């Protein structure tokens, strides 16, 4: 059975109760993992308070600010993790950002800054976190990131995020090749569209969800819990032979050609 008892898991990307990262944190907790939760700090401390209240029932043993655009915060988060835990078994990367204006209209209109921002936060951050986690994954481990079909095929308006997800998926393969020798597995989950804080800010997300409900083999979208269960599987010994893969958790939508 799926058992993560005694495993220490860092979960990034929780913003609210609709976050995919929240679904993953709950399933890792249900499987017995000890959690370290990171949040994106803001000036007023609103996010810290919100995420702290949300995750309280999971009794995280670490709760740390982490903005991946700030090297000092990465250093400080991982030095706290090293001091408190000594070791990490699981790392969940659930981070992405592009300017809202770059998620509609002409892809060719994306600015250099907008392009760099999307790739920095959404793709480079996985490399950064793996580099920081590598010396702490001394007894093997599992790293899971979140991707989307728009990284392999054109999805209207996904635009620069599609390029960022393509880079992220290739990061998964290069990181898997590097970290495999220390028995660290790196995989991605390609989730179908879900209503979250990020996706709800995107025009037409409801139409996309209705399209998936009409076309996907399972005739529905997926839930954060289903993504969380797939992540828990990939992090468990049940997936001990799986690395460098992108697992579609999309109600089958990706197989359809028409
Ligand atoms: O990866 C994502 C969301 C990524 C995202 C969303 C936002 C909205 C608000 C990144 N940055 C921002 N920045 C903001 O200011 N998804 C897979 C969800 C998503 O986003 C889309 C989608 C889907 C699906 C954007 C356009 C078209 C489809």
Q: How would you sum up this structure, described in words?
A:
- This protein has eight helices and seven strands, in the order E-H-E-H-E-H-E-H-E-H-E-H-H-H-E.
- By secondary structure, it is of the alpha/beta class.
- It has one domain (8-250): NAD(P)-binding Rossmann-like Domain (Rossmann fold, 3-Layer(aba) Sandwich), CATH 3.40.50.720.
- Strand 2, helix 2 and strand 3 form a beta-alpha-beta unit.
- Helix 1 (20-30) crosses helix 8 and helix 4 (112-133) runs parallel beside helix 5.
- The chain is globular and about 50 Å long.
- Bound molecules: ligand 0WE.
- Ligand 0WE is lined by residues 96-98, 100, 103, 148, 155, 157-158, 161, 193, 198-199, 201-202, 208.
List the helices and strands and how they pair.
Layout: E1 8-11, H1 20-30, E2 34-39, H2 46-55, E3 62-65, H3 71-84, E4 90-93, H4 112-133, E5 141-147, H5 159-179, E6 184-191, H6 197-200, H7 205-215, H8 224-235, E7 246-249
Parallel strand pairs: 1-2, 1-4, 2-3, 4-5, 5-6, 6-7
Helix pairs in contact: 1-8, 4-5
Bound molecules: ligand 0WE.
Q: Main sheet: which strands, in order across?
A: 3-2-1-4-5-6-7
Shape: globular
Distance between the termini: 37 Å
Helical stretch count?
8
CATH homologous superfamily classification = NAD(P)-binding Rossmann-like Domain
Poorly predicted residue ranges: none
The CATH architecture is 3-Layer(aba) Sandwich
CA radius of gyration is 17 Å
Major beta-sheet overview:
7 strands, parallel
Alpha-beta content class: alpha/beta
Q: What is the percent of helical residues?
A: 40-55%
In sequence order, what are the helices and strands, one letter per element? EHEHEHEHEHEHHHE
Mean pLDDT: 97
CATH class: Alpha Beta
Instruction: Report strand %.
Output: 5-15%
CATH topology: Rossmann fold
């Amino acid at each position: 059975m799926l058992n993560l008892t005694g495993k220490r898991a860092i979960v990034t990307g929780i913003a609210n109760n609709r976050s995919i990262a929240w679904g993953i944190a709950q399933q890792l907790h249900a499987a017995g993992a000890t959690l370290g939760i990171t949040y994106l700090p803001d000036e007023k401390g609103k996010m810290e308070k919100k995420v702290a209240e949300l995750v309280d029932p999971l009794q995280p043993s670490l709760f740390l600010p982490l903005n991946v655009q700030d090297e000092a915060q990465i250093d400080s988060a991982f030095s706290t993790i090293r001091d408190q835990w000594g070791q990490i078994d699981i790392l969940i990367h659930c981070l992405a950002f592009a300017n809202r204006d770059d998620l509609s209209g002409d892809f060719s209109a994306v600015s250099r800054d907008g392009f760099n921002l999307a790739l920095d936060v959404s793709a480079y951050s996985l490399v950064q976190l793996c580099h920081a986690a590598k010396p702490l994954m001394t007894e093997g481990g599992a790293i899971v990131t979140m991707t989307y079909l728009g990284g392999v095929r054109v999805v209207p308006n996904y635009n620069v995020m599609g390029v960022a997800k393509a880079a992220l998926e290739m990061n998964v393969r290069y990181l898997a090749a590097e970290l495999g020798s220390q028995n660290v597995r790196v995989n991605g989950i390609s989730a179908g569209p879900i209503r979250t804080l990020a996706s709800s800010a995107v025009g037409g997300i409801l139409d996309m969800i209705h399209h998936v409900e009409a076309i996907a083999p399972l005739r529905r979208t997926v839930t954060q819990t289903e993504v969380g269960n797939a992540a828990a599987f990939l992090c468990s010994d049940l997936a001990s032979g799986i690395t460098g893969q992108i697992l579609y958790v999309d109600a089958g939508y990706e197989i359809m050609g028409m």
